[in-house]
Amino acid sequence: MDNNICQVYEDEIQLLEEEIKLLTEKYEDSQQESTFFSDEEILMSINSLQKEFQGESKGNESPSDLKARLGCLETDLSFLMKFTGIQFRSHSKKTVEKTGNRTVQKHRLSGNCHSLSFQLEFQLLEMRNKESVSAVITDLNIVMEAGENSDVSKFASRIGEHGNLLTFFRSLSSYAEWYEHRRCTFLHFK
C-alpha cells in the first residue's frame, strides 16, 4: 500500500517537474525574444512610431476615420475568410536568430479550412539589403488530420518538401470546398 502511494507521489512530482521545465523554457524564450533588440533599436522604433503617429494625426485622420478604416479592414478580412474558407485559430512566432541583415523566425499556425484542420510549422529567413527585403520559407512541416483524408495528407507532405505555402493554401481551399460538398451530398443520401 505504501509503495503505491509513493509511486503516485513520485508520478505527480515528475509531472510537476516537467511542467516547471516547460514554463521555464517558455519564459526563457520570451526573454530571449525581447533581448534580441538593443536599446538603440528599441529607441529608434519608438521614435519612428511616434513620428509616424504624428504624421498620421497631421494627415487629418480623426478617430472616426481610423474606426472607419478598421471597419473596412475587418470587412475585407471577413470576406477573405468566407471566400477561401480558411480561418486561423492560433499563431506563434519565435525569433531564432537575428543579426544585422539576417533574421530567422520560427512560426506555428493552426486553423481550419471548412471542416479540415491543419497545422503548419516553418522557419522564415529574411535577408535585408539596402534597397529590399527577401524572405524564404524553410523547414515547412504541414500536419493534416488523418482518417478518410489520406490523399490530402500525402499532398500536404509533398508540399512541405517543396516549401510552397501559397500552393498549399490554394489547393487546400479548393479541396476543402469540394470535400464539404461531397460530405453534404452523402449525408443527403443516408
Automatic annotation (TrEMBL):
<keyword id="KW-0175">Coiled coil</keyword>
<dbReference type="InterPro" id="IPR027801">
    <property type="entry name" value="CENP-P"/>
</dbReference>
<protein>
    <submittedName>
        <fullName>CENPP protein</fullName>
    </submittedName>
</protein>
<feature type="coiled-coil region">
    <location>
        <begin position="6"/>
        <end position="33"/>
    </location>
</feature>
<dbReference type="GO" id="GO:0000775">
    <property type="term" value="C:chromosome, centromeric region"/>
</dbReference>
<dbReference type="GO" id="GO:0034080">
    <property type="term" value="P:CENP-A containing chromatin assembly"/>
</dbReference>
<dbReference type="GO" id="GO:0005634">
    <property type="term" value="C:nucleus"/>
</dbReference>
<dbReference type="Pfam" id="PF13096">
    <property type="entry name" value="CENP-P"/>
</dbReference>
